[in-house]
């Protein structure tokens, strides 16, 4: 029951946050002269007839609070408007882009968690060892390497040589799961490695530092004094407590990355939310920009609710705060 009350509070808080973001977005873009708003929504090349149609269809000539109510109610139903640049609904564009971005993020998250946590835990249990010093150098290298540079290096050093020697499994661009699991992974492996390299370095450093601090706590010494095996002390008591800051960071990262893995998507020509959001900003595609803002905020809120729930499972004391 305590966990359910905790979860309900977090969900209600998330709904309030989404409402605040939607309200701020509306007044930022719509609390301006009607003609300016209509022309931005219709596009730079729109004729006066199209601008008049936008004003009529969206009710921009109505009182601002009436427009606000329509905006909020439509957003709550998933109606994010219509892009006159693309000639289709914003929700349709986002639905087409979301599988691409989600594919990059999910694969990258799995890869960087496996590598980052494994290296971090081993380094924490063997401080100042050769492995620990080597991993520290690797972490510094990973943090120092820009994502776009790593992506280009992988294309030049991996993709091109493999295809020149007839090994065409690794590809650029994007193909969905409908083409098969192996072709899909072949298109996604280089973006996953590019995205995971920097993040794995972050999680290695974070998990190592957290676990070292945890292993120095009194209850860890007590567990050892009771005769528990070192493996059980580390994984049953140490790692579980050390994961709380890692989980917090993961929620922030996933929420932000689902809003658009811009660099990776552009370097590998994937499309996706990130690449299309940049194009929308460049062309002034206001309906699509608004849609991306609302969807990105939804991802961040949902990711943080999930993280809060995981945090409460790892540390039951959180549920009563």
Spell out the key features of this protein.
single chain; 321 residues; mainly alpha
What does this structure look like?
- This protein has 321 residues and is mostly helical.
- It has two domains: 2-77, no CATH class; 94-283, MetI-like fold.
- It is built from 13 helices and two strands.
- The chain has a two-stranded antiparallel ribbon.
- The radius of gyration is 24 Å and the shape is flat.
- The model has no long low-confidence stretch (mean pLDDT 81).
Topology:
Layout (H helix, E strand, L loop, with lengths): L1 H29 L3 H9 L5 H11 L5 H13 L5 E2 L4 E2 H36 L4 H15 L2 H18 L16 H35 L2 H8 L4 H29 L3 H6 L4 H12 L2 H29 L7
Number of helices: 13
Number of strands: 2
How far apart lie the N and C ends? 14 Å
- The percentage helix is over 70%
Q: Could you tell me the radius of gyration in angstroms? A: 24 Å
Oligomer: single chain
Element order: H for helix, E for strand: HHHHEEHHHHHHHHH
Detail the poorly predicted runs: none
Structural domains: how many: 2
CATH superfamily descriptor of the largest domain: MetI-like
CATH topology of the largest domain: MetI-like fold
* Overall pLDDT score: 81
The helix/strand class is mainly alpha
Judging from the principal axes of the Cα atoms, what is the shape?
A: flat
